[in-house]
Design a protein that fits this description.
With 344 residues, the chain is of the alpha+beta class. The protein has 13 helices and eight strands. Keywords: Membrane, Transmembrane, Transmembrane helix.
């Protein structure tokens, strides 16, 4: 045992001295601590650490070289619910457009009859529409018409009918065109205040005079249909309209509600102007309307074209009663140059 320990000690000593560098400093002068530190550096512990580092790097390189799985390529298989064919929808019975229009017409007729019977049951006239005062409109239109027609007449008398001597030949020709334009504008302003509806009143048909329900001897087909509709209706609409010429009195037109046609809805008409009727707003507003015919819309009463003020008029119940009684017929009011001219 002592010999084994000596041999082991001798072998370990030889191994230690073989690991130490063979220089004069290390063999003779180097202290024991430096020798031990050198032994530790040359030992197998750093090799094991390097082996772990190397294995980790190799593992990382292998993971980098391996292709990453594509998530799109591994989509889940469609379930049976998606692959199952859906049952075909059962055919639904659709109503024809003609049947729908008939139903709407029947409903509208019933609503018109109920409103008309309610107004007739009152036994007295009911004002449905009242126009505002058109004083400034008439004043501005008549003033402009008087000025333009007078200007055309004076220039015609001076330059065309009795030209002064020495006047160039083209002057009468030019002034004839000026006089024609002035006269046309004057007549447009003059007739802009005619055929304006002043009031619409619902009157029970029983309270009308017998002459309105009999008619004349010779009636046109249009007048005959209007008289037949008036007899069948429980109420009649009395429309007070301005004369065909300015400065004339109003006339009254009696018609059935179905014979008063509109190209608009009263419930969709613009809000009345707040400046109407004020000391300064009224004159300026009337002048503007006289020059541009702003706020007037055409209306057909027994086939006769008139105008109604939808911008400043007062209507019963916000215009709902008139929208029910009067048919909405925009197709009968074509937007031609004659319509735009008569709109004034």
């Amino acid at each position: 045992m002592a010999a084994f320990s000596r041999g082991l000690g001798l072998g370990l000593t030889q191994h230690i001295f073989s690991l130490a560098p063979k220089t004069a400093k290390t063999t003779c002068l180097e202290p024991p601590l430096s020798i031990l530190s050198h032994i530790v550096r040359r030992s197998t512990i750093p090799k094991v650490a390097r082996s772990f580092q190397t294995s980790a790097r190799l593992h990382a390189s292998k993971q980098a070289t391996q292709p990453k799985p594509n998530p799109r390529s591994h989509q889940p298989a469609p379930s049976k619910q998606h692959t199952r064919a859906e049952p075909a929808p059962s055919p639904q019975k659709t109503s024809s457009p003609a049947l729908g229009k008939k139903q709407v017409a029947v409903q509208n007729a019933g609503l018109v009859a109920s409103v008309a019977n309610e107004l007739a049951a009152r036994g007295q006239p009911t004002i449905l529409y009242q126009s505002p005062s058109h004083f400034w409109l008439r004043f501005s239109s008549l003033s402009a018409a008087t000025f333009l027609i007078s200007y055309a007449g004076i220039n015609y008398y001076i330059t065309i009918a009795h030209p002064q001597p020495g006047l160039q030949w083209w002057v009468p020709v030019a002034f004839s065109l000026v006089c024609l334009i002035s006269a046309c504008l004057g007549y447009l302003f003059l007739f802009s205040t005619t055929r304006i509806v002043r009031r619409i009143t619902a009157i029970p048909t029983k309270s009308l005079p017998a002459s309105y329900l009999k008619g004349g001897k010779k009636l046109t087909p249009t007048e005959g249909q209007a008289l037949k509709a008036l007899r069948a209706s429980p109420i009649a609409l009395e429309c007070e309209v301005g004369g065909t010429l300015p400065l004339l009195g109003h006339r009254k037109l009696i018609a059935a509600p179905s014979n008063v046609e509109l190209p608009f809805r009263f419930t969709q008409a613009p809000v009345s102007q707040a400046s109407d009727g004020k000391s300064f707003g009224g004159p300026l507003y009337g002048l503007r309307r006289g020059l541009t015919s702003e706020g007037f819309s055409p209306i057909m009463i027994n086939g006769k074209r008139c105008k109604i003020d939808v911008l400043s008029g007062k209507v019963l119940d916000g215009g709902k009663v008139l929208d029910v009684l009067m048919p909405y017929r925009p197709d009968k009011f074509s937007n031609t140059w004659l319509d735009r001219l008569l709109k004034r």
